[in-house]
Request: fold
Amino acid sequence: MNESVTSNTASKILANMSGLIPELELLYKDIHAHPELSMHETRTATIAADRLRKAGYDVTTEVGKTGVVGLLRNGEGATVMLRADMDALPIAEATGLAYASAVKGTDDAGNVVLVGHMCGSYARKWCMGALQLA
Reply:
């Protein structure tokens, strides 16, 4: 592939990146403040599905119960797949952040637990930004 064509294409795709950062930061903070336990991610799945639809993707929901799949058909060529988990852990957040989780959820055993996104895999939020660059 011609390197100058690739560089030019990447520049065009990334040109709006700085404009997306404020919106993605709000999304990040919102999802962080409203975590959901595994197989209970209905709010987060709705946000993901809505954003995918808005960006022009074909969307399938309730994959494996709460999963979301977005498919962007853009012709022949390479296929790119992004995967991001959406679940949080049954753990209290003690970060002191203004957007820290104070959410309680009920686990599969019926216990009420504090819930937080403490696993460090914030790719899920940024994947929603990447879909807008396609």
In short: The chain is about 35% helix and 15% strand. The two ends are 19 Å apart (CA to CA).
